[in-house]
UniProtKB/TrEMBL annotation:
InterPro entries: Extradiol_RC_dioxygenase, Glyas_Bleomycin-R_OHBP_Dase, Glyas_Fos-R_dOase_dom, VOC_core. The keyword Lyase does not apply. Pfam families: Glyoxalase. The lineage of its organism: Bacteria, Bacillati, Bacillota, Bacilli, Bacillales. GO terms for molecular function: dioxygenase activity. Keywords: Dioxygenase, Oxidoreductase. Residues 5-129, 150-267 form the VOC domain. It comes from the Bacteria. This is Ring-cleaving dioxygenase.
Length: 310
């Protein structure tokens, strides 16, 4: 078994409307699911991705308005990387600047990156990549030839770099393809979410809060393969949770030795099984156990509005 790449990344942010305005309104990602944190139903769980919400494109958020700001550091995903089509770099530089977002240009392993932060301090970057299908979702001036395809990958800040590398290579089957003075680079076999960099020197320890990544999830094709992953990791001494039903995928979790919380999530069933493809993200969807409390949950949640023109 080899991991194909990233399934989704989950982060903690502030006000939910600011979150929608940034990821849908500015980055042009589709709000594909509006639900709640299954462990804390008084908090939204918002999912943004490509038009179809394909694995490898989904970034999810727990909005905690008024919560303490976190500190990005070791034991976390330090930077979330997005892939755009070849030739779209200048479009995104101009677009981000037009929204008064401070953009920096960096180079890593021969690729040019636009680096910036979202409205709540989460570190993001955009890079051109050949691989991956174009995203047909259109919003504002963002046409398919410019639209974000999904994740390019992520930069991991590990407290034990060699141990995290061992998980990626020996457990997940990624291949080490390059290194420079600052980073190691690894590649999975998928087309998106497949390039992982690890910073060689550990950062100061991170702390959870607004503007930080909570966990990174990796792809597995189905429930049977997920159970194989669980058995393999358990046999190799990792403490792995039981399977958690997350409605749109099943999930197992473990904290790798570099202190980053890893999840392995199934590709199916996806996001259209409890609403139509055309209406994904419009209604608040609740898991069955919370439906009897819908009115109380809706009353507790801050109302949010899509930026899309109907």
């Amino acid at each position: 078994m080899n991991i194909k790449g990233i399934h989704h990344i989950t982060a903690i942010v502030g006000h939910p409307q600011e979150n929608v305005d940034f990821y849908e309104g500015i980055l042009g990602l589709r709000l594909v699911k509006k639900t709640v944190n299954f462990d804390d139903p008084g908090t939204y769980h918002l999912y943004f991705g490509t038009e179809g919400g394909i694995p490898g494109s989904i970034i999810t958020f727990f909005p905690w308005p008024g919560a303490q700001k976190g500190k990005i550091g070791s034991g976390q995903v330090g930077v979330t990387s997005y892939a755009i089509p070849k030739g779209a770099y200048d479009f995104w530089k101009e677009r981000l600047t037009s929204f008064d977002i401070e953009v920096k240009e960096e180079e890593r392993f021969g690729e040019k990156y636009l680096t910036f932060e979202d409205v709540h301090g989460l570190k993001l970057e955009i890079v051109e990549r050949e691989k991956g299908e174009n995203n047909p979702f259109q919003h504002d001036q963002i046409k398919p030839e410019y639209a974000i395809k999904g994740f390019a990958g992520a930069v991991l800040y590990s407290s034990q770099v060699a141990a995290t590398e061992k998980v990626l290579l020996d457990e997940f089957g990624l291949v080490k393809i390059d290194e420079d003075d600052t980073y190691f680079r690894y590649e999975a076999e998928g087309d998106i979410g497949n390039i992982i960099d690890i910073k060689k020197v550990s950062e100061a320890r991170g702390s959870m809060g607004v503007g930080t990544v909570h966990h990174i999830a990796w792809r597995t094709k189905d429930d049977a393969e997920q159970l194989e992953w669980r058995q393999q990791l358990t046999d190799h001494g990792y403490f792995v949770t039981d399977v958690k039903d997350r409605n749109y995928f099943n999930a197992i979790y473990f904290r790798e030795p570099g202190e980053i919380l890893f999840e392995i999530a199934t590709d199916p069933p996806g996001f259209a099984h409890d609403e139509t493809y055309e209406t994904m993200g419009e209604a608040l969807k609740l898991p069955e156990q919370y439906e009897p409390y819908r009115s109380k949950i809706e009353e507790a949640l801050i109302p949010i509005q899509s930026t899309l023109k109907k």
